[in-house]
Amino acid sequence: ANCWKSRDKVQMHLFSESKVQNYDILAIQEPYINKHTDPLTTYSLALKGSFHILLQPTPKEEYKKRPQVCFYINRGLDPATWEVQYHNRDLSTLTLHTATHGTIHIHNVYNPGVNSNEESIISALQTAMAPRAQHIATKLINLMDEHGLKQLLPLGTITYERVNTKSTIDLVWASHNLANRVVSCDTKPEWWYGADHVSISTQFNLTAICVPPLIHKQWNVTDWDLFLKLMDIYNWYPRELNDNEAINEAIRYLVEAINQAAEQATPTK
């Protein structure tokens, strides 16, 4: 979704949508940037803390070089299964390790353009435009073919509307393997809050790795006689702590003994 750099008109309303809050990954372009924080931050209050915010770290004094893209990752996904790389203010890559379909790279790219005609460059993919635009569009098509990428949006999908202008300048590309696992890819006009770009929703048939459920123990009803007996069985005792390695090993052994004893002596909520 392109948020038009607006918190109040776009980003706040978009993030308030209940279905948006159930997504695994949000790829945002032109996010609202708070220029009063150091480092710079973006808006997330409506998401109620349920997402990790992946925004390129940028000091306050470099506001003019503020990031144009960012990711929001649902906290339900295991943090050990993903990482982000900030290439520059216009490009970030999220690497996601799935349960059954290997590793996936998600590239969030913003093309700011160099003049007011940049919109026609992508439009030339579907309509006859000026020769220069067709040439640039052909280069883009060839580049995508070279890397085996397929356009996922249905032909003719309008992703940009402004006054009397309608165009397709927001695109979703995927490798052939991923394209074969697409459940849906289309615009969401009902989430269109005053911006000139229409949000796009893409769903794949993939299995992400979720955070393991938290197990809560009822320590107040622990059978402490059994607990201490089990600690003796596990032969835990203080060791000589001569260096950091010995300390870490003693802590690891103690935690393991406590967990094993609690499995039998402490009920789960």
UniProtKB/TrEMBL annotation:
* Gene Ontology terms, MF aspect: catalytic activity
Q: Which regions span the lipid bilayer?
A: none
Q: Which domain of life is it from?
A: Eukaryota
Could you tell me which Pfam families the record lists for this protein? Exo_endo_phos_2
- Give start and end of each Endonuclease/exonuclease/phosphatase domain: 135-200
What InterPro entries does the record tag this protein with?
Endo/exonu/phosph_ase_sf, Endo/exonuclease/phosphatase
Name listed for the protein in its UniProt record: Endonuclease/exonuclease/phosphatase domain-containing protein
Its taxonomic placement starts with: Eukaryota, Fungi, Dikarya, Ascomycota, Pezizomycotina
